[in-house]
Amino acid sequence: MYLDTVFFYIFALITLAGGLLTVTRRNAVHSAMSLILALIGVAGLFLLQKAEFLFAVQIVLYVGGIMVLFLFVIMLVNLDQAARVRQFNRQWWLALACVLAVAAEVIYVLSRGSSAFRYAAPAAPPQAGNVQLVADILFKQYLLPFELASILLLAAIVGSVIMARKRT
Amino acid sequence: MLHPVTTTHYLVLSAALLAIGTIGVLARRNIIIILMAIELILNAVNINLIAFSHHLGQLQGQVFAIFVITVAVAEAAVGLGILIALFRNKETVQADEIDLLKW
């Protein structure tokens, strides 16, 4: 009996069901709630793969930050009109066919080559906690990208404020 | 009956989530839901990165996932700012009604 397998299928089901509901619901608030479900499923998958720091980041940042931002914007923008009209554009069948073809191809190739993804040898147990190990790599090996990310965030803050403010 | 979970499971799940997100981006008309579908795509990428990080026993993948989340935050903030400016000017959130540059 593999408990990991059971949890994997539970979280995968949560993720895929949340994703499908997100792209099919008519009401944008329902879509946002389903997206929260999908994000929590992804967080569970992170925990299954021993990425505890990213699990916390996923919950706090995505579910607590980005989704609240989305819900605020949904409240700001009047969506009553949008909920009553056609939800999919005219080429939706073409998009569906293309995406399904690509997905079937990728999944077929992945399952054909699955022998390449066997675990070689169990890695040595980590010497420190996940947060400490991630911080070591982030601040030593990837210090420059880390600083560049802060510049990106600054640009995003300034840009979004300028976009959203009233024209004077 | 139950097999242990391999990296392939995670990759197939990630591909499925990517497909769902891509359908959302290509087929929906509501811009807010298109932005949410982009978040789904970025999460599929993160699942991939974490799966390979776990597979190889190295933590670089988790660091890259943090960068991907950073970019996702910036993208969501700017995208929603653009959406508010657009709604103030054109009173619509349907992607195919914004066609000033089309002829």
Nutshell version of this structure?
With 168 residues, chain A is an all-alpha fold. Chain A has seven helices and no strands.
Structure description:
Chain A has helices spanning 3-24, 28-48, 52-76, 80-84, 92-112, 130-141, 143-164. Chain A is an all-alpha fold and 168 residues long. The longest helix of chain B is centred in the last third of the chain and has 31 residues, at 60-90. In chain B, helix 1 (7-27) packs antiparallel against helix 2 and helix 2 (31-56) packs antiparallel against helix 3 (60-90). With 103 residues, chain B is mostly helical. Chain B is built from three helices and no strands. Chains A and B meet through helix 1, helix 2, helix 3, helix 5 and helix 6 of A and helix 1, helix 2 and helix 3 of B.
Based on CA atoms alone, the radius of gyration of chain A comes out at: 21 Å
Instruction: Compute the separation of the termini of chain B in Å.
Output: 59 Å
Proportion of residues in helical segments of chain A: over 70%
What would you report as the Rg of chain B, rounded to the nearest angstrom? Answer: 17 Å
Helix proportion of chain B: over 70%
Whole-number mean pLDDT of chain B? 90
Count of DSSP H/I helices of chain B: 3
Name the biggest interface.
A-B, 89 and 73 residues
Number of strands of chain B: 0
Low-confidence stretches of chain B: none
Which class best fits the helix and strand makeup of chain A?
mainly alpha
Please describe the biggest sheet of chain B, giving its number of strands, its sense, and whether it closes into a barrel. none
Number of helices of chain A: 7
Question: What's the arrangement of secondary structure elements?
Answer:
The complex is a heterodimer of chains A (168) and B (103).
Chain A: H1 3-24, H2 28-48, H3 52-76, H4 80-84, H5 92-112, H6 130-141, H7 143-164
Chain B: H1 7-27, H2 31-56, H3 60-90
